[in-house]
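pinned: reference chain
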Amino acid sequence: MERELIDYFLIKACNASIVAGEQIMKLYEDTKEFDVNIKSDNTIITEADRVSHEIIKQYLSQTRIPMLSEEGRDMLFEERYRWDLYWLVDPLDGTREFVNRNGEFVISIALMSENKPAFGVIYIPPQHKLYFSDPDRGAFCIDDTRTLGEEELSINRLFPVSRKLEREPWKEGTPLRVAVTRSHMNDETRAFIDKLKERYENVEVTQYGSAMKFCHIADDKADMYVRFSDLFDWDIAAGEALLRAVGAGIKHIGGEEITYNKVQLIIHPFIATFDSVTY
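pinned: its structure tokens
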């Protein structure tokens, strides 16, 4: 893609996530109980999921690129398998954390090119923090979007107000900081951590909800994210783009590469970390 086109897509995704995040926070800070429903796949959905989806759809539809969203309509493989370029969106990743009001939920948007994430945007509404990657420039963070004022970001303004994320790969002899899921902890994860503790002298384990774990690796607050339960394409695509921009990566437990836009949009267990970490 040409630079001008990437810039146009990136700023649309950034503004969409910020505006959607503001609306999510209005619902989050409301004192009334959330209206929670169960979807056909046994996951939960709230009004915040739907509101965020509609706002993001409004922004991204201006790009005339198809959007595959967790809260959008089901699209058959026959409809989407030939897409060269499309948006992959989770309007509210961490709905359970949203309902529990622990602040660990995000908005994830990835631009997919030939079924690989070209760039990713992850917005953490309770922290007003925006993470994003650029295929040429690297990974960045705006630590507090409230300082930007009410005017929407332009591409010329985006990078000057952002902090570039530059971190070293994990090094032997330093603590290995492992992030795991808060809501889906299981025996496989515990067994894996026990093996890490046998291999490495100092392993620090923290639990977080949602794709925040990818942000922590990119921002030098974690070195590994291990997941032993299934997710969906939209849960990890933006995170993978962010990781690759700082020199990390993500693979299935057996070492296979992550693949997207399969018949079933399911991502099996994986580990996200640096090549310097062996397990």
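why pinned: The two ends are 36 Å apart (CA to CA). The chain has a mean pLDDT of 95.
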